[in-house]
């Protein structure tokens, strides 16, 4: 059962990431000495044998599908710690790509300090070409579409809803996976079926995504948080078995709101990238490369919000 708000207020704080692992705030990304087979907006993939990969979360920041020049120091470790936690919590619902085993002895010694805390050893799978978005509240691009009278991923919502209002039923609203620098596009369920190759697979993705969202939303209440929406990624192995991959329920992939100040009809404060998005909207950026420089106040404010999410989520875990 989820904790009450009063219980959440008495959760013991965690040590900040910086105190656990001091590092140069502008530490550069370090080559582990392995073949890099993929680079996303935030994560890099390195080959470790024929069937295993190292998934390394950098401190890179992306917003509106554009990668910014300035890093958020320590961000990759926050993302990895939270992903590892949620992969463990959801392992009884669906298998994931995480593996146990040694990787530290197989990388260059000079890279170990950088890789520590931001690296997952994972199985090599075929990623599916969609992002599985689940929404429990009307926010972000869904709110914009609703205001314009448009469906949300092919779903018509009832009239009279307010910004940030809780939806009667959580919605599966998948998107495409656009290349770096391009924008993801909302997909209907029929389009999702075409992209993943079968109706049964699309249905399995939808059911797993909704189940994970429901479980995580209850768990987040213990930390005094609302999960407004989140995105997940899935992959398959050579037999077609479905796995949860990439990251899970982090501030990069999830909209977290504080429960105690939540009020439908206005944009709540958040512990995620919305802080950056709001700043970029305020300066009139066209959301195309090259990105504008980010001031120190935005960088430090973003880190503080990510750390707050980490504290609330992991500090709410009880034995």
Structure, described:
This protein has 319 residues and is an alpha+beta fold. It has a single domain (5-314), classed as D-amino Acid Aminotransferase, Chain A, domain 1, CATH 3.30.470.20. The chain is 30% helix and 20% strand. The protein has 9 helices and 13 strands. The strands form 3 sheets. Strands 7, 8, 9, 10, 11, 12 and 13 form a 7-stranded antiparallel β-sheet that branches. A 4-stranded antiparallel β-sheet has the order 1-2-3-6. It has a two-stranded antiparallel sheet with strand order 4-5. A hairpin with a 2-residue loop joins strand 4 and strand 5 (66-67). Helix 6 crosses helix 7 (199-221). The longest helix is centred in the middle third of the chain and has 23 residues, at 199-221. Mean pLDDT is 90; it is low at 1-12 and 15-28.
């Amino acid at each position: 059962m989820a904790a009450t708000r009063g219980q959440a207020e008495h959760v013991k704080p965690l040590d900040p990431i910086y105190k656990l692992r001091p590092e140069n705030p502008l530490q550069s990304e370090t080559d582990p000495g392995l073949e890099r087979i993929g680079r996303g907006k935030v994560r890099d993939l390195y080959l470790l044998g024929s069937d295993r990969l190292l998934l390394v979360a950098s401190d890179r920041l992306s917003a509106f599908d554009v990668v910014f020049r300035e890093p958020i120091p320590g961000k990759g470790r926050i993302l990895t710690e939270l992903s590892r936690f949620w992969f463990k919590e959801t392992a009884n619902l669906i298998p994931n790509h995480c593996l146990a085993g040694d990787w530290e002895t197989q990388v260059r010694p000079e890279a170990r300090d950088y890789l520590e805390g931001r690296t997952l050893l994972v199985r090599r799978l075929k990623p599916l070409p969609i992002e599985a978005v689940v929404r429990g509240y009307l926010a972000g691009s869904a709110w914009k579409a609703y205001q314009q009278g448009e469906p949300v991923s092919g779903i018509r919502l009832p009239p009279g809803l307010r910004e940030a209002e809780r939806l009667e039923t959580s919605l599966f609203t998948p998107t495409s996976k656009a290349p770096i620098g391009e924008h993801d596009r909302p997909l209907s369920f029929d389009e999702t079926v075409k992209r993943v190759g079968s109706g049964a697979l699309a249905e399995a993705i939808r059911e797993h995504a909704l189940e994970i969202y429901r479980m995580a939303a209850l768990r987040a209440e213990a930390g005094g948080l609302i999960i407004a929406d989140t995105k997940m990624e899935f992959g398959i192995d050579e037999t077609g078995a479905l796995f949860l991959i990439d990251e899970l329920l982090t501030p990069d992939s999830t909209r977290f709101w504080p429960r105690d100040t939540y009020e439908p009809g206005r944009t709540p404060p958040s512990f995620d990238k919305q802080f950056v998005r709001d700043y970029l909207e305020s300066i009139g950026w066209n959301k195309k490369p090259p990105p504008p420089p980010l001031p120190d106040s935005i960088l430090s404010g973003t880190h503080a919000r990510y750390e707050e999410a980490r504290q609330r989520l992991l500090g709410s875990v009880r034995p």
